[in-house]
Design goal:
The structure holds three protein chains of three kinds. By secondary structure, chain A is α/β, with parallel strands linked by helices. Chain A has helices at about 15-25, 25-40, 55-70, 85-90, 110-120, 135-155, 175-190, 200, 205-225, 235-250, and strands at about 5-10, 45-50, 75-80, 100-105, 125, 160-165, 195, 230. An eight-stranded parallel β-sheet of chain A has the order 7-6-5-4-3-2-1-8, with helices on one face. Chain A is globular. Chain A starts with a strand and ends in a 13-residue tail after the last helix. Chain C is of the alpha/beta class. The longest helix of chain C has 16 residues, at about 240-255. The chains are: A alpha/beta, B alpha/beta, C alpha/beta. The interface of A and B includes residues 255, 256 and 261 of A.
Amino acid sequence: MARFLTIGERIHVISPVIRKALQERDPKPIIDRAREQVEAGAHYLDVNIGPADRDGEELMPWVVKLLQQEFPNTPLCLDTANTKALEAGIKVYDRKAGKPIINSADAGSRIGMIDLAAQYDAMVIGLCAKEGIPRDNDERIQYCTEILDRAMSAGLDPENILFDPLFVVVKGMQDKQQEVLEALRQITEMGFKTTGGLSNVSNGCPKELRGLIEATFCAMAIQCGLTSAIINPCNKMLMDIIKTADVIKGRNLYCDSYLEL
Amino acid sequence: MPYKKPSQKFGGKIREVTIGSGLKLGGESTLPFYSFDGDTGAKPAIGMEIWDIFPESWPQSLKNIFGEYAHDPVKWAKYCIEKSNPDFICIKLEGASPEGNNKSPEECAAVVKRLADEITLPLVIAGCDSDEKNASVFTKVAEAVPDKNYVFLSAVEANYKEVGAAAGMAYGNIVSAESSVDLNLAKQLNILITQLGVKPERMVMNPGCSAVGYGFEYVVTTMDRIRLAALDQNDVTLQMPIISPVSFETWKVKESAATENDMPEWGNQEARGIAMEVATAAGVLATGSNAVILRHPRSVEVIRNFIEELTA
Amino acid sequence: MALNGMEIYKMLPKKNCKECGFPTCLAFAMKLAQGGTQAEKCPYMSDDARAKLEEATAPLMKTVKFGTGDRIYSLGGETVLFRHEKTFVNKPRFAVMFDDGMNEDEVTKKINNINSVNYTRISEEMFVEIAAFRCSTGDKQKFISLIKKVVQSCSKVIPMIITEDTEIASAAAEEFSSLGPILYGANEQNYETMVSIAKKYNLLLGVKAPDQANLYDLVQKIQNSGYRELLLDAGGRNLKTAFDDVVNMRRTALLSQDRTFGYPSVAFVCDMTKDKMMEVAMATLFVEKYASIIVLNDMDYSMALPLFALRQNIYTDPQRPMRIEQGIYRIGQADEKSPLLVTVDFALTYFIVSGEVERSKVPAWILIPDAGGYSVLTAWASGKFNAKSIAKAIKDFEVEGKLKTRELIIPGKVAVLKSDIEDELSGWKVIVGTREAAALPAFLKDYLQERAS
């Protein structure tokens, strides 16, 4: 069984520093953000360039090459709704460290991303959603099935899909938390890989609570089968919990120093 | 539907470690002898065990073979090389034992130095039954034979700091990390030794050995799990080659040690000793050992053929 | 051929009716592929799909049997490639090869060796289970009389009849059918007749082809003719090829989940070498991976001691460690004044302790109480190795009647038991022994000296 896969979320257009750096093609802030995540133990780095309607086809290859030059052992997760930007990014992507992940497909307008993943032998995050947040787990599993049907006709091995049941914010959607965990369990029972954005869960909570909430949710989700997550790797408690869960799940042989690895 | 031959490809690979001036151990990315799956790495190596003192406690059959040479480790080693052409010599410093001859570290170092000067094969240097004494002995010996890539068998939990610092770092030799069929400790010890600053390519491991019939299932399972962690989980802390001192275990058990007077129905004692050594060696090779240490020339011959046939 | 979840899903009605108890057809398909539910739970499946699915959910490796009476042996039925994943279930059986072209002396020597190797090791009787007979002369009478001679002289062996000649096979099968022999020799040319003979007498049938691919085709044909009591031989007669054969047949069954190779296999070590010690090495490999019958040229004590011991180890259930029988064991020429030690009934502990006592050359007794089969500290912590269980063993095994000594040496790790035991056993003195068995020889010598002075 493969170890839990962590995808570092901190190169995101929503951050003012990153947004500015992307606009100005300024490498340093981007590389700094990448370095702190790689050093904290992130396996993949997510690169969210936003919709980038105007210059995505040029921006994505630039940032892919920049990061791969600096961190040749860290594969990337290319995050944009702009198909042309994704294609351009994948074309310059070096697969030595691992396949690129496309973030993301869904069962609605972005289902074409499945075809793209099949065409370029990439992995893809499959949001179990169509329009907005799914109403319940019947909907989630329905969308999951639709994505699978599409994958089968496109010739994409389901091994390459990370299903995201859509984590929801605890402050405001507290009653939905168990349902999300149950969706993870169902998707896992079908034999598929899963992922999700942990910061969704703690959104809007006080800063001092966010790390704890994410770490606790992550531990509970791993027991329901979660195999990867999009996270802030600089949250040491979360990283330690993920390592410990890998030991308890038998994905990593125990030794006294396991946290130091 | 036609036959589709199965195949297992792993992400991990056993590190290749060079001992002496060119004997390579490890390098495989498959389970042992699974040549149908990919690169099986270097051929497993065979070493012969000699002592720094006359081996009074060995069965008579072995003393009949080596007795004439066994008063001098250099003569003994040369005889082994001439007769059996092993890949390396294992000099066990049994004379260092505080319960026995209690030789000083300096005396031990002199023996190993003489061997190093007189023979070209790589040496594996094994200690006595005292971890504390081994720490001081290995420190002196490593100093006497610097930068030789000799293997020091072994660093254990109680003395890894001294052994690692001397053999692995200061004097350019190779450290064998030993744990007794405890895979969590095997991993931990590898980490602790690398954290001292010993490079992984200067390490091998002995995760424990026993004779067949004597808890050998624990040896097999520990090695199976170590190899699967190294290959399948790509656990870099367990990708060191494995060395198994088979002869240390097999010649003292009843099947090998009982004389024909003790057990008349069991028949020839020498044949029993060889068979126990051969079965144990084949048994550990089949589960992932990269090197075995043996005593009897016949066992060396058989195990060499066994390896040749499986790697042909 | 096993089906994966997606393949099953394609065969389902895709109604998501939930009547099977799963939220979607896909979830049901996935569960079915893992063996977690049954095909019949789906009310809307076509008959054709149902038949395919039932085939796909049988055990991956079949358990087959041979022999007679209290000597019926099971082979196969394995579910894992490594014993730590669960356990290995049916141990391989050893066979000694006879040939009807052999001279009298050779036959007699093998018979004598088979009859002499017969002993008990940790509650398991060790002996050669199978005598294999190869018909190389083509002389039916000669062949049958050889088998007759051996099975009459060696009361425990089950014969394995090896011939590709259907007439000889039929005669030998009829002659020895009451012993439940193995009939080996079905090939591409003769399989229809061989299957009918095996069917008639309900025998385990050995199937042979020149390589894995040809064997695969042949097994499919035999399965289609409705016979599934099979033993496989993909033809490898050198170590490398034979190892490739057994590993890949086992992986085809358990990893590829293809039941065509879901049968036990046989390794003819006797054809791979004439060197006895090389046979030991090769047989060791095949015990670990993954032959179910291992045919050797001969079996004397020097071969049996390591091979049977290895087999016993490898086929121990990891969840149930081996236990040694309770009792009082005599080491060397111990007499009524010799030292008495006590340790636990965990087989490995007993072997290590008894080995060290033997190494010390001090004759002694070892008392083994009921300690639950655990190691010393575990047995003590779980309350199985304590003053009561030790006192009970002293009483049950009439130690006070047998021995004059009233001193008991206990493991150093349970020194705390000293006063408890002395309270429980009046007139006894408890001596705290060593923490590690390796220190026993020195300890015993000191102990004897001290007692003498």
